[in-house]
UniProtKB/TrEMBL annotation:
Cofactor: Zn(2+)
A GO molecular function held by the record: metal ion binding
Pfam families found in the cross-reference section: M20_dimer, Peptidase_M20
Peptidase M20 dimerisation domain location: 211-310
Protein keywords: Hydrolase, Metal-binding, Zinc
Binding site for allantoate: R214, N273, R286
Family: Belongs to the peptidase M20 family.
InterPro entries hit by this protein: Amidase_Cbmase, Bact_exopeptidase_dim_dom, Peptidase_M20, Peptidase_M20_dimer
The organism of origin for this protein: Motilibacter rhizosphaerae
Signal sequence region: none
Cofactor: binding details: Binds 2 Zn(2+) ions per subunit.
Protein name: N-carbamoyl-L-amino-acid hydrolase
Amino acid sequence: MPEVTRLLADIADVGRDAVRGGWSRPVLSTAELDLRAWFVGEAERRGLDVETDRNGILWAWWNPAGLPLRDAVVTGSHLDSVPGGGEFDGPLGVASALAAVDLLQQRGSSLARPLAVAVFPEEEGSRFGVACLGSRLLTGAIDPDRARGLRDPEGVTLAEAAAAQGFDPSSFGRDDEALARIGCFLELHVEQGRGLVDLGQPVAIGSSILGHGRWRLTFAGQGNHAGTTLMDDRRDPMVAAARAVVAVRDAARARPDARATVGRLRPVPGGTNVIASRVELWLDARHPDDAVTTALVAEIEQLARQIAAEEGCTASLVEESFSVTTVFDEGLRGRIEAVLPNAPLLGTGAGHDAGVLGTVVPTAMLFVRSPDGISHSPEESVEDADAEAGAVALADALESLLT
Ligand code: HGY
Ligand code: MN
Ligand code: MN
Ligand code: MN
C-alpha cells in the first residue's frame, strides 16, 4: 500500500458524518483537532520540528543543516472539510507532503534550503464562512477584528472557539515573520474535476485558479402561521428565495464559463408550520474574469430586489469574501514543468490556500486525478496508483527546488 494511502487510511474514521455521509471536519472541531494531532505525530515521527503559529497554522520544519529559516520551500494543504465532504480534498495534499518527505529522506536528498509542511486551518470556510481563513490571516487578506467576530451557525465567534482551544485571538493577523521564511509554496491537491481523466494523465501542474466569492442574500417578509394565513395575505421570503435560486442558475448559464451556486439556505425561524420571517441564502459565484463575476453578482442582486418586490418582501446582499483570479508564478511553474515534463497544465475552478498565498509569495500547484472528478461529496475518490504518482511527482518537484 503506498504511504499516502496508508496515511489517509489512518485518519479515515476521523470526522465521518453518519447523517450526511462522507466526512465533516469543521475547523476547531474534535475531528479537526484530532487530525492536527495526527499530523503532528506523523511529522515528528519523520524528525520534523512542528510549531503552531499565532494564526493556528501548523508548520513542520525539516532543516537538518540548521539553515536560517529563510527562503524555505513550503508544501502542504488543509485538513478541514466541507460538510459531508470527501476523503481527499485537503488531506491528500498533507499526506502526499509527508510521503514526499519520506522519499526525500530515503533518497538522502541534500537540502540547500529548509523545507516545511504547512497545514492551513479553515480552508473551506465551512464553520466561519470565509474560505482560506488561515492563509488570509497570515497574508493580511482579512481584517483580524472582522475575523475574530466571524460567527459559526451556532453563534460562536472565531475568537471564542480559538480561545477555548488555547489560542490567543488577539494575536491573529498578518505575520511578516512567518511570511519572510517562505521562499515558495507548492500545494498538491486532488483535481476536483475531470481534466486529468479526459487527458489520461495522473498528475497536472496548476496554471490558474478562477476568481470566486461568497455573498449572503437575505429576503425578509412577514413571519406568520401556516394554517391561518390566507395565500393572498402572505409575504413569504421562502418563495422569494426559491425564485432567486432559479434566477441565479439562469444568470450564470447566460455567461459562458460562469458558475454560480446556492448551496446553503437558512429560513428563520424554520418551523414546518411557520411562514418564515426571513430567509438567508449564500451565493458562490466564479468566473475567470473578475469583472464578469462582479457583473453577474450585480445582475443577481437586481433580480433579487425585483423578486422581493413582487413577493412583498425586501432583499439585501452582503459580500462575505472574494478571491481574485490567480495565475501561478511562471518562474516556479517553469521549474516544476522541467522536472515533470509529461504533466499537462490545468486550471481549476476550486479555490486553494495557494491562491491566497500567491498574492505575497511565489506559489504553484500539482493536481492529482480523481476518476469521476466529483468533489465536495462523499463520492470523491483517488486511485492508489494516482495518489502514489502524485507523491512521487511532489517529491521530484520539491527535490529540484530544495537543491
Ligand atoms: O470552494 C472551493 O473552491 C475550495 O474547495 N475551498
Ligand atoms: Mn474544498
Ligand atoms: Mn481543498
Ligand atoms: Mn400553533
